[in-house]
Design a protein that fits this description.
InterPro entries: MoaB, MoaB/Mog-like_dom_sf, MoaB/Mog_dom, MoaB_proteobac, MoCF_biosynth_CS. Pathway: Cofactor biosynthesis; molybdopterin biosynthesis. By secondary structure, this protein is an alpha/beta fold. The protein is built from six helices and six strands, in the order βαβαβαβαββαα. The protein has a six-stranded mixed beta sheet with strand order 2-1-3-6-5-4, with helices on both faces. Helix 1 (28-39) packs parallel to helix 5 and helix 4 packs across helix 5. The longest helix has 15 residues, at 100-114. The chain is globular, with a radius of gyration of 15 Å.
Length: 173
Amino acid sequence: MSHAASVFVSLNMAVLTVSDTRNEQTDTSGKYLVSALSEAGHQLVDKAILKDDKYQVRAQVSAWIANPDIQVVLITGGTGFTGRDTTPEAIIPLLDSQIDGFGELFRHLTYQELGTSTVQSRAMAGLANHTAIFCMPGSTGACKTAWQGILLEQLNAQHKPCNFVQHLIETRS
């Protein structure tokens, strides 16, 4: 497949909220991501809310990576510096490769909004088994910044000169 397709490709996605305090009623970040991906033409395959426990997070994301019906995992929460924030530690061992530019660009965009406080963000991303995993902070504002500033275009097969779609729709080995 070429770097940019002429037609939109709907991707199957899962959304994970990592939080010790949020539930379905108070999970504004997860709700935002579900709404945004749907509005963009993608499909929600699964959604979960888990406590900040790296082994539970790792188990859930591992299952989604192994599921051939899921091409993208969006994770919100657990990327800060508190003792309970372990999303990067849960996800990094699962990755085949990291997408360093995601965290770098996210922090650049966030700097424009928050100034130097953005250095405390451990937003990160990577690929595993033709599945893209994007880890964002738990605030709804951070999810909006990541979606509108990066993911909306990079998860669109029509975005040129390149996007992630070609890496996600390849046949899994």
